[in-house]
Amino acid sequence: MFNSNGMELFQSDICLLKDKETLFFAAQGEDFDINSFYSEYKIERQLGAGGFGKVLLGVSRVTGEKVAIKATHNEHVDSVKDLDQLYTEAQTLKALKHPNIVKVLNCFVDRKSRQAIMIMEYLEGGELLTILQEKGSYSEEDAVDIFNQLLDAVTYCHRYKVIHRDLKLENIIAASSDGKVFKIVDFGIAGLFAGHKSEVTNAGSLNYMPPELFTKKNVVASPALDVWSLGCILYALVVGKIPFRGETMQEIKQKITNEKYSFPEDMQLSEELLDLLSRMLEKEPENRASVYEISDHPWVCKRKFTEDEKAKVREREEQAALLEAQLLKQKEDESPSRKVKEFGAVKKSFTPSPERARINALGTGSARIPAKGSKDQIINLKESEKDGKESPRKRSVHKNLK
Asked: What is the H or E stretch that residue 46 is in?
């Protein structure tokens, strides 16, 4: 006998069962079969698929409730220890209770197929990406309402040491068709199924990844990773596009690492929003704002800057401009063209004068040089030095050069 999590039950466990909990029986003592679990639901269609698995729309045969069933790929699970770790982390996600995080109704790990199965509430409103493409962009007044929902959910999870690692427009779903309440899905899924370690280089979506993952300054998951992704989402809400785009993966990485985001020329944004974006999309993770600092920011609190805050903003902007100028000069100093020019100047400084060339040539014992006062005559020193003596003509050249 197995419970709804796929865990085998014994007689001592019967008293711990929840009311109306679904149980599965193995008539011939066989192991839990994942197909038995699926039999509880009528699978209507596939909702989506990604790097970690696929999502199906299921309807409970008992209650008629619609659910989203996520079944992961199994290539990341290599041992029993991985399975146990996967189950523990899945249960942690199930324990998260927040109005802007999708509810995990049930989850279990199938040891036979090495798959993790998560039963989540079904959200009907569609992805924020699709909504944004249809709408174009949001005003600051509407964007702050959506952003506050996301920020509150991420802050809640950071408080419990859970990092999303894959925040993006596609992972934000409207709870209903009115598009007023949004929920984050796959919260922690990227971390669960990326090898169950803190390394995040291969987790997440490229356009939303912070620069430290490409420069290898920090490949360990940290809250700063989610803050950068939230900054990309906030930019997209008000501009209508993500801040770092490109035709190739290498071009996108280069822009994230080395370039600053920009805005359309005709776009007018408040100084509070511009400041918030600059603090979230800060390339150095240790200088990036935390979720708690963001929560207290004037734009998030729907108020204007005070005079003291304006002074601090100007100071940060001056420091940023100074740092940018220093980095630009450093790049110029390290550029190949600069090095070639410097090498040419150094080489020229070591090029001997005509007189010095004649003296150096005399020292080789085999050079041919024009003698002063007798331009058409060529001196061959080889023969005169065979016996180790200096020829009269060589002495004459030395005298003339002096």
From this structure: strand 41-50
Per-residue pLDDT tens digits for 185-244: 876 554 544 444 444 444 458 999 999 988 876 556 789 999 999 999 999 999 999 999
Strand partners, 118: 70, 107
Q: Is residue 340 part of a domain?
A: yes
Assign 75 a pLDDT band (cuts: 50, 70, 90): low
Beta-carbon contacts of 119 under 8 Å, excluding residues fewer than 6 positions away, are: 58, 67, 68, 69, 104, 105, 106, 107
What is the CATH classification number for the domain harbouring 147? 1.10.510.10
In a domain, 2, yes or no: no
3-state secondary structure of 42: strand
What one-letter code names the amino acid at 26? A
- Could you list the active site residues? 166
Higher pLDDT, 150 or 362: 150
The DSSP code sequence of 324-387 is HHHHHHHHHHHSHHHHHHHHHHHHHHTSPPHHHHHHHHHHHSS-EEEETTEEEEEEEHHHHTTT
Non-local CB neighbours of 90 within 8 Å, separated by 6+ positions: 104, 107, 108, 109, 116, 118, 192
- Say how many C-beta atoms besides its own lie within 10 A of residue 330's C-beta: 10
Beta strands in 73-155 (DSSP E): 104-110, 115-121, 126-127
Q: How confident is the model at residue 402 (pLDDT cuts 50, 70, 90)?
A: very low
Q: What is the dihedral of CA 123, 125, 126, 132, to 10 degrees?
A: -140
Q: Is the pLDDT of residue 91 over 90?
A: no
Q: Is residue 5 part of a domain?
A: no
For residue 345, the one-letter residue type is A
Residues 293 and 157 in one domain: yes
Give the chain's length.
402
Hey, what are 313's tokens? 């903003």
pLDDT tens across 133-164, in order? 999 999 999 999 999 999 999 999 898 888 88
Report yes or no: 90 and 107 within 8 Å, Cβ to Cβ: yes
Alpha-carbon span 128 to 67, nearest angstrom = 19
Residue 1 lies in a domain: no
What b-and-e string marks burial along 24-40, b requiring 16 or more CB atoms within 10 Å of the CB?
A: beeeeeeebbbeebeeb
Q: Does the global pTM surpass 0.90?
A: no
Please state whether beta strands 53-60 and 172-174 pair in parallel, antiparallel, or not at all (unpaired): unpaired
